[in-house]
Specification:
- This protein is of the alpha+beta class.
- About 25% of the residues lie in helices and about 35% in strands.
- It is built from eight helices and 22 strands.
- It has a six-stranded mixed beta sheet with strand order 7-8-9-3-10-11, sandwiched between helices. Strands 14-13-12-15-21-22 form a six-stranded antiparallel beta sheet. Strands 2-1-4-5-6 form a five-stranded antiparallel beta sheet, with helices on one face.
Length: about 350
Amino acid sequence: MTIIELKNITKRYNNTPAVENLSFTVEEGEIFAILGPSGCGKTTTLRLIAGFDMPDDGELVLAGKTVADKGVFVPAEKRKVGMVFQDYALFPHITVRENIAFGLKNLDDKEKDAIVENMLQFVGLSGLEERHPFHLSGGQQQRVALARALAPCPVTVLLDEPFSNLDADMRTQMREEMIKILRKSGTTAILVTHDQEEAFAMADRVAVMNNGRMEQLGTPEEVYHYPTTGFVADFVGKADFIDGTIEADGIRTEIGLFPNNTRLEIGEKVQVMIRPDDIEIEPAGTGCAVIKDQQFKGSEVLYTLELPREKYIHSVLPSTRTLPAGTRVDVKARPVHLVAFQNGKAVSEKS
């Protein structure tokens, strides 16, 4: 069942589109991520779904009911949408129990208490119900915010950069905990983030946005391995682009010949996407590249390589062996998923 549907939604501020002609659906129980840089329109999209803003054009449907259209606008408090804000937005002067119960309306105290007790157990906060938010860790505050959003049994829960205030270790832990809670409850959720690792780890599908428009929509694997635009290729993971020419036996580049998985004519020019983990290097006095820089990243090292035509590409290798800057190396590219681009658009066919 489709829970959320956006049909050609546009929102302008001072005649400048923040979101333009945006369409997608979210199915029941799906975790859907909107991924993009600052200013791309992802938070505006969330606000439109929540009912905090009104679209200028298009239609928005929640659980089969139109909530925004020409002449129709259902206010936020009547949409049954839960929200987890970036800063959690907990009330500091009331307890955990009271925060969770805040959105429970038209229920007697006994019914509210039963729901709150259930949510406390569900998110692992039993025993902390009488504490105030400022006596909780960041991860515990986030669970209170999620429990408050889930308590009224919303149509969907919207998550606005929910991990940005946590340190790296806590982000990973809370990401895993939130996935378990959302899956166990069968909640339909939309996650807004600028972090591709976060989107890929949590979401069933990912919508990549740029300048108010959707660049690509697909599973994490599709978006990473088969980006449809140069922007997506570069945004969802480090990517280098090597100039190539279509020849009879493949795509010729300065680091080798690649299979031609396009339908382009011989002689046409393309750019081949290469990711750092596609590149293998070995020290060689007659090698075609020189290591210009290396960045130690713990379990791996990221190398910056200069090619003969002063083009730079990158290679990531285990840190069990490191090579110093200035080392001349042979370069072997072994892309598992070859994608060629022309004018910023993918022209390769999926293998």
